[in-house]
Amino acid sequence: MDSNLSRSISRSLSRSSWKMEEVFASGRYSRRTSHVDEDEEALKWAAIEKLPTYDRLRTSIIQNFGEGDHHHHHDAKAQHREVDVRKLDMNERQQIIDQIFKVAEEDNEKFLTKFRNRIDKVGIKLPTVEVRFQNLTVEANSYVGSRALPTLPNTALNILESALGMCGISTTKRTKLTILKNASGIVKPSRMALLLGPPSSGKTTLLLALAGKLDSELKVTGEISYNGHKPNEFVPRKTSAYISQNDVHVGEMTVKETLDFSARCQGVGTRYDLLAEVARREKEAGIFPEAELDLFMKATAMEGTESSLITDYTLKILGLDICKDTIVGDEMHRGVSGGQKKRVTTGEMIVGPTKTLFMDEISTGLDSSTTYQIVKCLQQIVHLTEGTILMSLLQPAPETFNLFDDIILISEGQIVYQGPREHIVEFFESCGFKCPERKGIADFLQEVTSRKDQEQYWADRNIPYRYVTVTEFTNKFKRFHVGMQLENELRVPFDRSRAHKAALVYNKWSVPKMDLLRACWDKEWLLIKRNSFVYIFKTVQIIIIAFIAATVFIRTKMHRRNEDDAALYVGAILFSMIMNMFNGFAELALTIQRLPVFYKQRDHLFHPAWTYTLPNFLLRIPISIFESLVWVLVTYYTIGFAPEAERFFKQLLLVFLVQQMAAGMFRFISGVCRTMIIANTGGALMLLLVFLLGGFILPKREIPNWWVWGYWVSPLTYAFNALAVNELYAPRWSKPSPTQANLTLGVSTLRNFDAFANKNWYWIGVGSLLAFTILYNVLFTLALMYLNPLGKKQAIITEEDASEMEVGEEPRLVRPPETNRESMLRSLSKADGNNSSEVAMQRMSSRSNPNGTRNSDSTLDSATGVAPKRGMILPFQPLAMSFDSVNYYVDMPAEMKEQGVAEDRLQLLREVTSAFRPGVLTALMGVSGAGKTTLMDVLAGRKTGGYIEGDIRISGFPKKQETFARVSGYCEQTDIHSPQVTIRESLLYSAFLRLPKEVSREEKTQFVDQVMDLVELDSLKDAIVGLPGVTGLSTEQRKRLTIAVELVANPSIIFMDEPTSGLDARAAAIVMRTVRNTVDTGRTVVCTIHQPSIDIFEAFDELLLMKRGGQVIYSGPLGRNSQKIVEYFEAIPGVPKIKEMYNPATWMLEVSSIAAEVRLGMDFAEYYRNSALFQRNKTLVKELSTPPPGAKDLYFPTKYSQNAWGQFTSCLWKQWLTYWRSPDYNLVRFFFTLASALMIGTVFWRVGKHTLTTSSLTMVIGAMYAAVIFVGINNCQTVQPVVAIERTVFYRERAAGMYAPMPYAIAQVLTEIPYVFIQAVYYSLIVYAMVSFDWKVEKFFWFFFVSFFSFLYFTYYGMMTVSITPNHQVASIFAAAFYGLFNLFSGFFIPRPKIPKWWIWYYWICPVAWTVYGLIVSQYRDITTEMFIASENRNYTVKDYINHHYGFKSDFMGPVAAVLVLFAVFFAFVFAVCIRALNFQTR
């Protein structure tokens, strides 16, 4: 039986092979020598053939070589054994992959060809998909210019407008933007199609439209069909897969786990059916398949395996096999590199059975040889298994470009060319444009349609050049022979009878629901293990609070004399209920963090929403049981609740249910709110409602009629009643009450709290809590099913782009009609000539200093015809950098230690020696993972961990980080900028902080303008930066901004980490032009670079090439047309010569790859160390490491270029702008305060006017307490994400030496004050009026004063928690820990005189206690009305009663005020200190 099983698996493996595997096969197979082997194998096959079908499909033959020696097949005797393909273990799977695919591309092709032959031999046709689109038009609405900036007023306007829009009143003038216009075409099966086009030409929109994933708000006309079927006749999201350009992954899962999960969700599609059919026909025809192929096909066609061979195959062809056990990583966890993450995104879709792929820019961050390898593998899959792929690439190298069969060229939303690659150059030549020599065709195509770059390609110089618009190109294409043929094909509808039934997918889920549930279950369990820190932290936190509660309400102090004592027990019950409720707050951050990944997988139809929510709910139950058990064990008997065992377990059950209910509620809130800021607010509002109306702050009889419904829908009502009934019906509370005749003490207490005096309420409470738990989880599931992620998808178009888009016969942008004044202004600004670069150039060269010295130079220059050097208002000192034998180690990662690596340290750089000189542009190159970025970080002093050895010198002097930061700039690969600032503001900010103070204001602003001109950001100077991938600037504009921010500091040495990754050819050319301009000013520039096109590569002067393991294999000049480097490598015996027109960068990476080293049996690093070049570099480094005579070491009198006041004003200016433009933060906060003020006002309507009794006083205190603590906690929670985002920017700016942490922190702290002030003003007015306290000026002033400082210290407390924790998720859990203590000691649950003396100190340091103190004393300190106290049987005046019962002295207002101010100052101070001392970045 086993053997048959194994057979079937391998069969299935082989089936999937047609999917991907061909990509890597190796020619290992057919070298069997002895006949003996073959006979033995034939016997086994014969045996397998006799098995029943089911088993036959699950059994195959695996070859093992005796000594495991793969090199010499002749010596080792091969053994064949039967295996069950479902039971292959990790090593066997790895062995199969290694045997079949030695070198990815070549072996994959061999393998796929065999697969194809096997299928052709028995005459099976593979299913294919042809995608057509006709007259596809997509339109969107957008705002133009400053109306698009998200300032507070603009956002408030937008909200108003959308509200009015719902009532059917339309107000604004929105602008219509056409994204795609009349696009038609065919994506054919078994042909690779490439989608090219300049940025924002509509590539992504076209891919999304074809994959059926367009946003529903867009207006779409035209039709799309697959094999002649309309999208509503089948499931397009399962038939095709869209691979996004944004990488959204769960950071804690490893690469292999991510792919395995994806494979389990997507199933094997038709692979199993294909295998069964092949096996059946082979049996009839008597054909024996080849062992390896059969094994592979069988193993990849088996459903339900936890990690399939297809995953290993995908890892191999994507080159991810080296990092398969590394976590993917996110902002907080260091994971795989950017390029690897990109490949994980691709792999995630490829492991499924889908053969129709729409890939959006999958090569971002990959070097050209890796891109080539992946595209080559995909091409083999397409050709040999008849898949359909449409891929958009940014900078395809010529050799990658040549792998494609069809090209679709799109520009300004129109399709300019669609057809075979061979005719595209011919088409443009017919239009009069020619592609120059040594220029990639892809780059030429992207530039030829653009207004800025078209002219250089004009072919016939005799005819004057005229700009050819995109519309003209499209019309010419319709008359071109390819265009005519396309039109004819589209006229004939697709013949449905030719379509294969299996080509389209008709059911939503490809895997049985239980299997999906199992996959999600495993993933949840894995994540709980990986995130165990959070859960352990939560449990420890609840244990600590349990201990505190137990010692505050300790039994020796708890008497049972009268209702007052009983009230204390109720206080303890309440406290434990509330703490267990708050324990769920951590769910918010955790759930929201995982939503983006969930939405992605939901949209790809990986699994239904309930398979995600069910494990999520069930797996947390054991944790919750444990927490509630600990809580009740610690608190129950120490507090001295009723001793009966039955009541103990009843309370335990209730505590557990409260926890489940709370977790469900917070999950539901996060599913509906979908972003952290809104969730904190929505969550807090819901909590406020549930709390205020839970019947314990305000007894039911006091709740105004219009709020009574809230009492019945609040889950806490039921929890409170059940807990109270459980305790107060115990035998020991059955003695008669001292104050109320014929009632027991227990019932009388219940009456006081207006709880239900009825034993059945325990079970009613349990039932209700259970119902709430189920309800919230069901609602959460529904929210996940039907709500989409929030995000402003609205385009922001600058006025200038708008005016460009409006021209032409068919403008892309149509504005609403406008008033005369506006249009006049606009035409004026157009006439200003700021869009014509010529004018700008003249303006630049003639810009003169106030004293006129520059003028003479520039006239001289222009007379001699030499262009002046650009942007050189400020002088700088050119510096060279040399380094000798640099080594860098990190501690060995724990994962590798587990796998048995013995060393303690992992070496990332070995003996790196070279030099960078002024005016020379150096490229740092190497395959992914060679240590390029590591070397830059080490040289720039950006590493925070690890061990650095070696000698680094600046112009001969040893490098000191403090001074070095002043003369160097570092452009990170990730562009980190404050999201709410415009480009010009970012640059001004950087310039003002980093240029020396001797430079005047005018010069600084002028310099900023020059830099903007240098990096060509002039037209965008008022665009807001936005968050990467969400809003604001495109990747390439962001990249240029990163460069500009460093340039305005006027540095002498600039490091750039992958300045061109993620850019298309034209954008990359612009960025490189920027870099080149920078070098020509005489600065030292070093770039790491991934996949340079020929022109980018040859813009460099020198090259430092590294191989894996951080060793140098070439360091020296490139030479004209890369002459030098080509000569160096071609001189090595065995290295193939470079092909004509081939990209030298790609060639160089290929000939020096690890595979090449193995083939040649040599080490390139060793070869370089023995070369003459190495000796030359050694001498150069020696020369540079001695300072030239008379040179002085760099010296700056102060650490920062600005004094503290200057730093402070700049920081304040930027913080202020950021806040003014963060509406989601400020509006949300204001809205929340307004809502809670109104809620408190209506719930406690005119409580201040009641006759004073003990219970009305308790109510007032409850009201004050609730008001302050909720608004305060909301302030605290909402400020956290804001500070956390700003902190990442702060790390970059501090590393660049822009400012000291202190001025920054003070600025951040001061910016909050005006906002909190406004908040406190209207809050105090509303609450004071509605609760109708005594209208006296001083009383109102005190109320306002206390509220303002309470809100302020809560806000600063939130900032402080962020500054002492690594991210805002941990911060919110940490902050929540103290809310509990603030709650307990606020004087509401247990009055101060009742607190045991060993805890009284905490009362004095609890800020909320002081707030409540201040509020009560300021209102009641002068009231001398008498009131009767029943429990003591005597009269008190109000002020005496407050003193006697709560310990509030009436003459204590001054100290209270001082202490509140001190709290705010203290928290702000701790924030500043921690920001300075702690660094949570790991590099």
UniProtKB/TrEMBL annotation:
<feature type="transmembrane region" description="Helical">
    <location>
        <begin position="617"/>
        <end position="639"/>
    </location>
</feature>
<comment type="similarity">
    <text>Belongs to the ABC transporter superfamily. ABCG family. PDR (TC 3.A.1.205) subfamily.</text>
</comment>
<dbReference type="GO" id="GO:0140359">
    <property type="term" value="F:ABC-type transporter activity"/>
</dbReference>
<keyword id="KW-1133">Transmembrane helix</keyword>
<feature type="transmembrane region" description="Helical">
    <location>
        <begin position="1313"/>
        <end position="1333"/>
    </location>
</feature>
<protein>
    <submittedName>
        <fullName>ABC transporter G family member</fullName>
    </submittedName>
</protein>
<feature type="domain" description="ABC transporter">
    <location>
        <begin position="881"/>
        <end position="1133"/>
    </location>
</feature>
<feature type="region of interest" description="Disordered">
    <location>
        <begin position="802"/>
        <end position="864"/>
    </location>
</feature>
<dbReference type="GO" id="GO:0016887">
    <property type="term" value="F:ATP hydrolysis activity"/>
</dbReference>
<dbReference type="InterPro" id="IPR034001">
    <property type="entry name" value="ABCG_PDR_1"/>
</dbReference>
<feature type="transmembrane region" description="Helical">
    <location>
        <begin position="1227"/>
        <end position="1245"/>
    </location>
</feature>
<dbReference type="InterPro" id="IPR003439">
    <property type="entry name" value="ABC_transporter-like_ATP-bd"/>
</dbReference>
<dbReference type="Pfam" id="PF19055">
    <property type="entry name" value="ABC2_membrane_7"/>
</dbReference>
<keyword id="KW-0472">Membrane</keyword>
<feature type="transmembrane region" description="Helical">
    <location>
        <begin position="706"/>
        <end position="725"/>
    </location>
</feature>
<feature type="transmembrane region" description="Helical">
    <location>
        <begin position="761"/>
        <end position="787"/>
    </location>
</feature>
<dbReference type="Pfam" id="PF14510">
    <property type="entry name" value="ABC_trans_N"/>
</dbReference>
<feature type="transmembrane region" description="Helical">
    <location>
        <begin position="1401"/>
        <end position="1420"/>
    </location>
</feature>
<dbReference type="GO" id="GO:0005524">
    <property type="term" value="F:ATP binding"/>
</dbReference>
<feature type="transmembrane region" description="Helical">
    <location>
        <begin position="533"/>
        <end position="554"/>
    </location>
</feature>
<keyword id="KW-0067">ATP-binding</keyword>
<dbReference type="GO" id="GO:0016020">
    <property type="term" value="C:membrane"/>
</dbReference>
<feature type="transmembrane region" description="Helical">
    <location>
        <begin position="1456"/>
        <end position="1478"/>
    </location>
</feature>
<dbReference type="InterPro" id="IPR013581">
    <property type="entry name" value="PDR_assoc"/>
</dbReference>
<feature type="domain" description="ABC transporter">
    <location>
        <begin position="164"/>
        <end position="437"/>
    </location>
</feature>
<dbReference type="InterPro" id="IPR027417">
    <property type="entry name" value="P-loop_NTPase"/>
</dbReference>
<keyword id="KW-0813">Transport</keyword>
<dbReference type="Pfam" id="PF01061">
    <property type="entry name" value="ABC2_membrane"/>
</dbReference>
<feature type="compositionally biased region" description="Polar residues">
    <location>
        <begin position="832"/>
        <end position="862"/>
    </location>
</feature>
<feature type="transmembrane region" description="Helical">
    <location>
        <begin position="1370"/>
        <end position="1389"/>
    </location>
</feature>
<dbReference type="InterPro" id="IPR003593">
    <property type="entry name" value="AAA+_ATPase"/>
</dbReference>
<dbReference type="InterPro" id="IPR013525">
    <property type="entry name" value="ABC2_TM"/>
</dbReference>
<feature type="transmembrane region" description="Helical">
    <location>
        <begin position="1340"/>
        <end position="1358"/>
    </location>
</feature>
<feature type="compositionally biased region" description="Basic and acidic residues">
    <location>
        <begin position="809"/>
        <end position="824"/>
    </location>
</feature>
<dbReference type="Pfam" id="PF08370">
    <property type="entry name" value="PDR_assoc"/>
</dbReference>
<feature type="transmembrane region" description="Helical">
    <location>
        <begin position="1257"/>
        <end position="1277"/>
    </location>
</feature>
<keyword id="KW-0547">Nucleotide-binding</keyword>
<dbReference type="Pfam" id="PF00005">
    <property type="entry name" value="ABC_tran"/>
</dbReference>
<keyword id="KW-0812">Transmembrane</keyword>
<dbReference type="InterPro" id="IPR034003">
    <property type="entry name" value="ABCG_PDR_2"/>
</dbReference>
<dbReference type="InterPro" id="IPR043926">
    <property type="entry name" value="ABCG_dom"/>
</dbReference>
<dbReference type="InterPro" id="IPR029481">
    <property type="entry name" value="ABC_trans_N"/>
</dbReference>
